[in-house]
Amino acid sequence: MAEPQVLSSRDPGGEPDGARLFPAGEHRALTYSSYLALDELLAAQRPRSEEHDEMLFIVIHQTYELWFKQLLHELAHLQERLETGDGQHALRTLKRLLAILGVLVEQVHVLETMTPLQFKGFRGRLEDASGFQSAQFRELEAVLGRRDPRVLQQHPEGEARQRIAAAMARPSLYDSFLAYLALSGYEVPPRADLGAPLEPSAETQRVLLQVYRDDGEPSQVAERMVDIDEAVQEWRYRHVKMVQRTIGGKRGTGGSSGAGYLMTTLHTPAFPDLWEVRSDI
């Protein structure tokens, strides 16, 4: 296997980037390791037991958090593109989002290589730590349109809780999609309360029906939005089945109801209008 390339670049004057950050004689060239902060990243796995499989559990969940960060980054960019009417770049970003969501589903298969007995070997060391405490996932849900202030109770006062609350207060991805349709010439009824959950709207569905009949770029964007919704639902389903095969009907860590609660999140679309309009096409 080839050695990873050393990442480096130089400014117009010929000095490596960052050279001026160090006094004369103390310059450290940018390397693959320093650019990616590998010393910090690879030191972030701290198992609390001697069980072999705990490392896999930690790496998988840390990787999820990195992908959640990238999803939020891409979704913010997507909303900007939609709200300026830039359908072409919105489609490109939607394609990337779908690829990332596909990776999240595949990661479940890796975690499922761990048997219930192997998980039991270190599960007690998790104490009250639970995936329900993932602030980034709650923020992701809010960007996709979830408006449930009860989730804030799972997070102490601080930056993470503020990010979730802010995401629930600003326009969701679907609101940005409706703004894009308006810029594309469609008479989209405004949503009166951005802080309210998305509910099916017969008036909006009439607009979407015309979008599909016109069969232009907006209809392509609409279909990719459906793909995003379906991919999130697929990940939720795979997550539920993984929890069921790992802990069965036991309560989750942190006092959660485990698979029981996760089952209630299935089959609930983020963008209901885009599904209901299909009955009329």
From TrEMBL:
Superkingdom of this protein's organism: Bacteria
Family: Belongs to the tryptophan 2,3-dioxygenase family.
Residues binding substrate, per UniProt: 57-61, 123, 253
Catalytic activity of the protein: L-tryptophan + O2 = N-formyl-L-kynurenine
Record's subunit section: Homotetramer.
Keyword annotations of the record: Dioxygenase, Heme, Iron, Metal-binding, Oxidoreductase, Tryptophan catabolism
Entry keyword Metal-binding: yes
Binding positions for heme per the UniProt entry: 239
Biological process, per Gene Ontology: L-tryptophan catabolic process to acetyl-CoA; L-tryptophan catabolic process to kynurenine
Gene Ontology molecular function, alphabetical: heme binding; L-tryptophan 2,3-dioxygenase activity; metal ion binding
EC annotation from Swiss-Prot or TrEMBL: 1.13.11.11
Organism: Glycomyces lechevalierae
Full protein name: Tryptophan 2,3-dioxygenase
Protein's pathway: Amino-acid degradation; L-tryptophan degradation via kynurenine pathway; L-kynurenine from L-tryptophan: step 1/2
Transmembrane segments: none
Keyword Metal-binding applies: yes
Its job: Heme-dependent dioxygenase that catalyzes the oxidative cleavage of the L-tryptophan (L-Trp) pyrrole ring and converts L-tryptophan to N-formyl-L-kynurenine. Catalyzes the oxidative cleavage of the indole moiety.
Necessary cofactors: heme
Cofactor: binding comment: Binds 1 heme group per subunit.
